[in-house]
Amino acid sequence: MADRLEHLRIYFVTWNVATKYPEQNLYQLLDVTHSNSSRTLPDLYFIGLQEVKAQPQNMVLDMFFEDPWTKSFREILKQYDYVKIRTQRLQGLVLNGFCLRKHITHLRSIEAQYTKTGFKGMWGNKGAVSIRLNIYGVSMCIVNTHLTPHDHLLADRIIDYNTILTNHSFTCSDTSKILYHDYVFWIGDLNFRLIENDLSATEIDLMVKRNQLKCLLEKDQLKSVMKNGEAFAELNENAITFPPTYKYEFASQEFDLNRRRPSWTDRILYKVNADVYDDVKLNAIQQNYKSHSNYIQSDHKPVTGEFDIVVRPGVPDHGVEFQPVSQWFIDEENSVSYRLLGDAKRASGDWVGLFHNEFSSLDEYIVYEYVGRGKASPIPFEPHAITERIYFSDTAIRAPGIYRLVYVAQEGNLVGILGVSPPFPGYHRLG
Description:
The protein contains 7 helices and 20 strands. It has helices spanning 27-30, 59-64, 68-77, 154-167, 201-209, 213-217, 221-228; strands at residues 7-16, 44-50, 82-90, 93-100, 107-118, 123-135, 138-146, 183-189, 266-272, 284-291, 303-310, 320-322, 334-340, 351-356, 367-370, 377-382, 385-392, 401-411, 414-420, 424-426. A 6-stranded mixed sheet has the order 3-4-2-1-11-10, with helices on one face. A hairpin with a 2-residue loop joins strand 3 and strand 4 (93-100). It starts with 6 loop residues before the first strand and ends in a 5-residue tail after the last strand. The model has no long low-confidence stretch (mean pLDDT 91).
């Protein structure tokens, strides 16, 4: 990990999966194919999905178990040393955040939220889910939305946007609203169409085949409302150079002209509050913005975008340092000591989780112990650092293997990763 990290690369995916299960190879969508093996991997992935299959009888289970899409993306990304840091779901809306393992101890104040907009806010079939976090001295908020459909309901989409801005709130006092964050990325099936009654579906299809995208985009509802200040005016969007992403025949790259007029429903927008710090000017450079026509299992095409953002390399984020674990015996009580460094402070909800060495999600803890409860005890170490010891019961580890400990700071809805121990073996005592 470089001492003076100045930029992070973030990769976004938005895809309306039309209640289908994963069928096609997802490596190309994430740009981790072998043909691209020499490229620099993104530091973070955020994957926003809409219309993930959600049945009322499964809604309780959905809260505790990964959906097939989330599991599929995690299984791929863990091969490249990514850890899933959070999933937020609202019925068919799912947003997943993944972080390279080397960065996770710099994550602070992770929080997820949702806003329902379906049936005047009573139902979550439409709305927004979000993840906000701090990393390397900057704050960011990622919003995944599915807004009201159909050409003629433009006014409802405008209302949806403004409802989300008004109702979506976070615990962090400085960034209690979406647009207060240093970086905002707004992705999803925004459902904006081409201006009603101007062109037929067949005429649009013909213009796409003639590559007259610029003329078509002049009739884009989203660009119109942004220009008029009615919705999304606070955000930016890079130039679109790909065909409309909706509506396609299933298992095809041809538009379904009998049902809907083609349109760019699936979008990635962003906002940078550039001048909030004296020590650096923030900026986001979008490296690419494209759709992926070879994915044919939905009537939407997925859209991806990759950004390089400026961070604040001089801002310390003090955490926890675990002392090396020299031995951990199965069927015995074990303990570990750790130091709180710098201005790191223990909160009432902090806990230390025991994980397998190559864990791929922060939800994969085997067992955890709250800090400051039970047999945890302070011990002297250095005058300017607080050192404590925490104990795990004899049932913590059941089988030999390689393990790690993770210190999780938790205060209400806010979660941060303050430290990860070096790997250590768990084994039976000989003799």
